Amino acid sequence: MRILLAEDDHDLAQRLRPLLEQAGFVVDAFADGRAAEEHGQVEDVQAAIVDLGLPGLDGLSIIERWRGNGRTFPVLVLTARGRWHDKLAGFDAGADDYLTKPFQPDELVLRLRALIRRSTGHATPRLQCGPLQLDVNAGRFSLHGSELALSPQEFRLLGYFIHHVDTVISRERLGEHVFDSGFDPDSNALDVLLGRVRRKLDVDLIQTVRGQGWRLTAPA
């Protein structure tokens, strides 16, 4: 799943990016507030992590502009400002959660996963589709109760599907949330990846919807 990271602390961003990628996310990172705000207005991201003290455009203004333009993806605020009125300002701007620096990296991942899970309509940390289950907190898939061995790209693909069960997902949308950058909808990379994942599932969970894309659905 693709997320937006707006953080101008280079060292922190360098630490967070591999952590988030290892947790199954495709990361679009920005150090400038205006670039981050523009990206969030037009790209299909599942969530955003936003530092308040960004150059160019501050984090509160970014969130306010997104919400003003109807962008509803969850936003997790990162900041060194720990006072209550600063947190209140973030929530008033439209933020969904707040994490004060310094923080534990694992907590950031857990909070982000929880935000995405709730934003896609899932109340519990275990997402189910037939015999396939994702433990969101642990970041682990199981099939018929046994852990499923997946590559990072396979995990991202199944992760996006299971957050959007019974929803038809187009080639372009799925590719953007699976591949790090430069996805070419005309290439066969996504088809190859889908073929690998389907072979690891012993039931027909991923259905092809001709002319539209694919859908993850439990067998009848």
UniProtKB/TrEMBL annotation:
BP GO annotations: regulation of DNA-templated transcription
UniProt keywords, alphabetically: DNA-binding, Phosphoprotein, Transcription, Transcription regulation, Two-component regulatory system
Xref: InterPro entries: CheY-like_superfamily (IPR011006), OmpR/PhoB-type_DNA-bd (IPR001867), Sig_transdc_resp-reg_C-effctor (IPR016032), Sig_transdc_resp-reg_receiver (IPR001789), WalR-like (IPR039420), WH-like_DNA-bd_sf (IPR036388)
Annotated GO MF terms: phosphorelay response regulator activity; transcription cis-regulatory region binding
Modified residues (4-aspartylphosphate): 51
Residues in OmpR/PhoB-type domain copies: 124-218
The protein's name: Response regulator transcription factor
